[in-house]
C-alpha cells in the first residue's frame, strides 16, 4: 500500500512547505531541543539515540520530513508523512499498515524490529471492526509506542514517544514515581489507559523482539474479530 492507494487517510495528507519556516520558528525548535537533549542523552534507549542520528535530526533546525523519509525508506521502508490534523482510527491504522507514520519524526522508525512491529500492529488494527477489541489493542500501542520502557545495562531506559517528549513523565519514571513492571502481553492488555494523569504503571521490555512477538500473539487472539 502506498500514499496513492490510501482510502481512509487520503484526504488528510498534506505537503510540508519546509521553505516557509521562519528563523524564529527554527529558533523555537532549537530551544526545545536544548531543554530536552540532556535528558534524552541520559535516559533514552540506545536504539532511540542511534535513530536520532540515522534519520538526520538537527538540533538547530526543524525536521524536514521528506529528507528524513529519504533516510528511513532504504533502511526500514517507513516514511514520515505530513497530515492536516488528528486522524480517526481507520485512517491512522491504514497509514501504519502502509509504513507511513503521520507527521512525526520519531527516531524509533529507524530500528528494523520496531519498524516491523509497528507496521504489523497497523495491519491488524486496520482489519478489526470490534470496538472492544480495538480498545484492548490500543493498550498495546499505549504501553509500547507511547510509553514504552526497556531495560538496558541494568537501567530503565525510555523509548515511547509520549514519555520521551514529556519532561514530567520521563522524570516520573527515572525518579521512581512510576511502578515499572516486566512486560507481559496479558498484563498490558488488562491495564486500562489513563490519558488524563501522570502514568502510575508502565512496562519494560528486555528487547524489541519481545514486542514483535507480542503483536503476533495479539493477532492470534483477535483473529475471531477480524
Relevant terms:
single chain, two-stranded parallel sheet, 10 helices, 226 residues, alpha/beta, globular
How are the secondary structure elements laid out?
Elements: H1 23-43, H2 46-54, H3 65-76, E1 79-81, H4 89-97, E2 100-102, H5 112-127, H6 131-146, E3 149-152, E4 155-158, H7 161-165, H8 167-174, E5 179-182, H9 185-189, E6 201-205, H10 208-221
Parallel strand pairs: 1-2, 3-6, 5-6
Antiparallel strand pairs: 3-4
Please give a structural write-up:
The protein has helices at about 25-45, 45-55, 65-75, 90-95, 110-125, 130-145, 160-165, 165-175, 185-190, 210-220; strands spanning about 80, 100, 150, 155-160, 180, 200-205. The protein is of the alpha/beta class and about 230 residues long. The chain has one domain: Phenylalanine Hydroxylase. Strands 4-3-6-5 form a four-stranded mixed β-sheet, sandwiched between helices. Strands 1-2 form a two-stranded parallel ribbon. α4 (about 90-95) links the parallel β1 and β2. α5 (about 110-125) packs parallel to α10 (about 210-220). The protein is globular.
Amino acid at each position: 500500500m502506498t500514499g496513492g492507494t490510501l482510502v481512509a487517510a487520503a484526504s488528510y495528507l498534506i505537503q510540508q512547505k519546509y521553505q516557509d519556516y521562519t528563523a524564529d520558528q527554527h529558533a523555537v525548535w532549537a530551544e526545545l531541543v536544548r531543554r530536552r537533549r540532556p535528558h534524552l542523552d541520559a535516559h533514552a534507549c540506545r536504539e532511540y539515540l542511534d535513530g536520532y542520528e540515522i534519520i538526520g535530526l538537527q538540533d538547530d533546525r526543524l525536521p524536514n520530513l521528506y529528507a528524513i523519509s529519504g533516510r528511513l525508506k532504504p533502511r526500514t521502508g517507513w516514511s514520515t508523512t505530513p497530515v492536516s490534523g488528528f486522524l480517526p482510527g481507520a485512517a491512522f491504522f491504514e497509514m501504519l499498515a502502509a509504513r507511513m507514520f503521520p507527521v512525526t519524526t520519531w527516531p524509533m522508525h529507524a530500528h528494523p524490529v520496531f519498524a516491523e512491529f509497528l507496521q504489523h500492529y497497523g495491519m491488524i488494527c486496520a482489519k478489526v471492526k470490534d470496538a472492544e477489541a480495538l480498545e484492548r489493542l490500543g493498550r498495546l500501542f499505549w504501553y509500547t509506542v507511547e510509553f514504552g520502557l526497556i531495560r538496558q545495562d541494568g537501567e530503565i531506559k525510555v523509548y515511547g514517544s509520549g514519555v520521551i517528549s514529556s519532561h514530567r513523565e520521563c522524570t516520573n519514571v527515572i525518579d521512581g514515581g512510576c511502578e515499572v513492571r516486566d512486560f507481559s502481553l496479558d498484563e498490558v492488555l488488562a491495564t486500562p489507559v489513563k490519558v488524563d494523569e501522570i502514568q502510575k504503571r508502565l512496562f519494560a521490555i528486555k528487547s524489541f523482539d519481545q514486542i514483535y512477538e507480542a503483536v503476533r500473539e495479539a493477532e492470534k487472539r483477535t483473529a475471531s474479530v477480524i
